[in-house]
What does this fold into?
Amino acid sequence: MRLPRHPFMRRHAARAGALAMLLALLAGCGGGGGGGGSAAAPTSTPAATEPPPVAPAAPPMSQRDAVRLAAQASFGASEAMVTQMRTQSAAAWVQAQLQLPQASRYTAGGTSAVHTDTSGVGFCDQPANKGDQCWRDAFSSQPLLWDFYRNAVGQPDQLRQRVAFALQQILVVSNLEVEGTYGLRRYQNALLDHAFGNYRDVLRAVALSPVMGDYLNGVNNDKAAPNENFPRELLQLFAVGTCLLETDGSLKGGRCQATYDNTTVRNYAYALTGWTYPAGGKSKWGCAPKGANCRFYDGEMAPLASLHDGAERALLAGGRKAAGSTPAQALDAVLDSLLAHPNIAPFIGRQLIQALVRSNPTAGYVGRVSTAFQSGKFSSGGLSFGTGRAGDLAATVAAVLLDAEARGDASPGPSGGRLREPVLMMTGVLRALNGRTDGDALGWWWGEALRQHVFRSPSVFNFYPPDYPVPGTQLTGGAFGIHNANTSLERLNYLTYLLNWGGSDPVASVPGAVGTKVTLDAFDTDAADADKLVDRFALLAHGEPLPAGPRAKVVEAVAWWTDKTDAKTWRINRVRTAAYLVFAAPQYQIVR
Amino acid sequence: MAHHHPHSPSRRRLLAGALGLGTLGALAPLRSAQAADFKALVCVFLYGGNDGMNSVVPMDAGRYADYARVRAGLALPQASLGRLGTSDFGLHPALAALNPLFAAGKLAVQFNVGPLQAPLTQAQYRADAGRTALTPPSLFSHSDQQVLWESASTDAQSRTGWGGRASAALGLASPVISVGGNGHFGLSELAAPLVLPGPGNGFGAAGLSSADVIWKSNALKLDAVKALAEQRADTDLAGAFQKQQLGAMALSEQLGPLVKRKPGEAGSNAAIDAAFAPLIANGNVSTGLGRQLYQAAKLLDVRATLGGNRQIYFAQLGGFDTHGEQIGADALSGQHAALLKQLGDALACFQAALTALGLAESVTTFTQSDFGRTFKPNNSNGTDHAWGNHHFVLGGAVKGGCHGRYPALAVGGPDDASMNSWDEQGRWIPTSSVDQYAATLLGWMGASAGQLDTILPNLANFGSARSLGFL
It folds into this structure.
């Protein structure tokens, strides 16, 4: 397989070679890192003085790199997962994840019955449905939250779920304003289904979702007075953003030049008129406006020509909605214009980097990921990703994860890292400590406490903006937008909750409840040796041992527990203390 | 649209063992002389874009007729409006709790204020056609306009808020204190706002408080946490994270019990509880904004803890983006009415608490919002994004009354930010700027002319009109 001749690859190769040598030297010092980095060996023509290129048998990941990749591409590393990952190169692992049959889906919760009732009595007021949990099960996102956390902690298609999680924070629908569990379920399943597909298909599914239609007033949008809510957010948040961008994500011309004006928003609004709910809904009082279907979420929105604008409308990137279009034709024109716009690749690419790897990617990194999005193809480690069609998410995600800026053992540098957002922090600790959850405690309790109650974003702008500024730095830091003195301490309290308070017991009203708990048995084997125990946790959580100074303090706190100070439970308390401190550490809380 | 289902599942509160057991020493209240020198600003941000045109409504025959004609189904009946003193304006009936404050001279209404780079006429706006900095960027985008208001700038990429910049420039002892989440307002170059949770919520690390660390195991654990937080950070983000964690641990020792305390619990301030009584049910303050302002009142009561004689606070209420179903069966009910009731009632209780604490003259509360909303409604019984808006300023120091210029009520008229016939919706070009609004508030706080220019980059463009006169 011939790799492209890209100057990046040569620099990468030189660096990888040097890195491999350095690590080989360090290996004798007892460091946790394994042999060479995860860099792919290129087959590009070498300069005269370079040694002949090594055949592209990409080496398996080091401990540090595997833990790093797990933090980027899964809901957190467990020892078993890292052992498996370390039999492969990063590229091979990513490919395996991309090829894994889909395992995760949303299935829990009520049905479309909430929208087919003709009695005129509210669904939960009806005798058959009365009960504490009616709203929870039939209208709320709580059943989705259960599935989300069960899948995140237990299902093997980790990367698919991570990408879907990233997409749901860009293409936001919130239970704060939209109710109907079956509809929310359908929306989130679409994101899972398309996670490795094409972004155009994602946009199409979102644009035709009746749930999104309700959330942003796109349903029954009438040419007589088109509502601009959905078209505006489609442009601003879901596709191209407000400022013109270079391929590398920087502002075109060094300042914000508007991507679109109000006229353009209005044109998209006209182009997106003429869709009603899918058929199937029923109501005692019929459906409005004339010809429209009643509210119903099982299916895509259906065209309603009487509401659709007949005029020609100019779209972005030279696109055009034709005069006399059908709603479907107009939607195609809308989607084509967005995929053709030079902004979409860096706009979406950069956010995927921020969601998976680091909050402040270099321009070069964004450029490489944009190229993968635009070309629909990416190659690394002798493997090829993507189908060659613009908007290919498999290629884009591979580009994000296999870029040099994401891989390797070295520190990513001062501008590297991302704050492990609350959802990923919660699942990460559970997975690392062989835990289980039905999700119930991670919504109204911990989700609210940490300001990330999944599926209940405060607005279409997500829990936090991707570019929230971090004072005291020149950087932005996404999840810092919901992080403050209070949540700083709540993160510690989450650890105490799991380790010292026994987490949560199963609650009878939760179907298939298991509560939220960790299982520390596996770590008992090293309890007698405090140094070994602490290192074991650090290797799992950080991919490498702690620096000497803090490490000594952690070991001291762990080693205080002995059969003299606590005859019966000193072992488990050593494990608890070590786990608490290692997961509380900045090395864990900030993914590097 | 979706029907509203107030959720009240049983929330498991953090019962953090030793926290709150008598660790709060008696903090001596400030002597009255110091109290007289103390001043605080409280920003209440209305997220989503409050419909100012239905919050404050003209009551003179001519303008009311214009209002009713254009507002159509959304128009409030004239008889329902709460007249503001003897002025030509009245409040939405849901804001009735604010009428007595107006009567007492403690409420000012600022008309038609919004982000501007410089004074802007309709002719200039149309000629500019969005090309230069004269037209603020992304005018109808929530996130951008929130940043413009919170940063008092026309830079949608601003990294700081005007509250944070003021805090830095004035050398305040504490960063902006937020009882309403992070936001942008309190950000400064070096400091994040101090964000505290609502009543009933713990603020502290379980097992690591001063009461906990009398046990050696906990003391060693705390030492290790601190060592980890003090280690050299290899990324700037880790450095910021660590710094915040250390600060949080120190502060939670002082503030944890106070923050957690709910109305009626031991140690609670009876005067504050009495002032908020209309909103208290079953030992809880029943509305979100009420809970935030209750916390603010508590913190102002023990202001010496956070220190300094100048403090800035931030609170917020969301849900104002009423594109559809802004009203219920009629204009008196529905989503906007519910939000305004929450706003008015919470502000009134807060003002009463301040009076009881002897702080009525010392604290000025003011609203901000993404933007106003279109004078002409849309087809979904709601309104869309606009620009200039009307805002409230409350406090004993306020020069009560109506300030600024109320727009001409003509869709497509001289105040309308319309470029084409199809976008004549009644979006007002502001006649007062956020800079001038902020300068009026900060000037009262004691900022010098030079400090105001540092904090508010566009203020100089407004020449000598640096105060809007409501303080």
